[in-house]
Amino acid sequence: MAGHSESPLSGREIIVEFAEVGLAVKVSAMDTATLTEVCVQGPASAPRAVLERNALARLKYVLRKRGLL
Asked: Mapped to the 3 state alphabet, what secondary structure does the chain carry?
């Protein structure tokens, strides 16, 4: 798509962790450079790629809001 550049998280070390809690999955994403961690939840039936994308989108939002990106 025109105007899109590389992801702001490219080149950063991000740890993503999945933990099933009953019928839900808790996804944590942490930026190791800033030690910023966010969590999202979704249904256990959701594709892991979708859950990971949501967690990374939230991490980008939080890093931008804090002026770290």
From this structure: CCCCCCCCCCCCCEEEEEEEECCEEEEEEEECCCCEEEEEEEECCCCHHHHHHHHHHHHHHHHHHCCCC
- Tell me, yes or no, whether 1 lies in a domain: no
Domain residues for the domain of 54 are 14-65
Each residue's pLDDT tens digit in the chain (69 positions)? 444 557 888 999 999 999 999 999 999 999 999 999 999 999 999 999 999 999 999 999 999 999 999
Residue identified by tokens 């939230």 is 58
Instruction: Match 């839900």 to its residue by tokens.
Output: 24
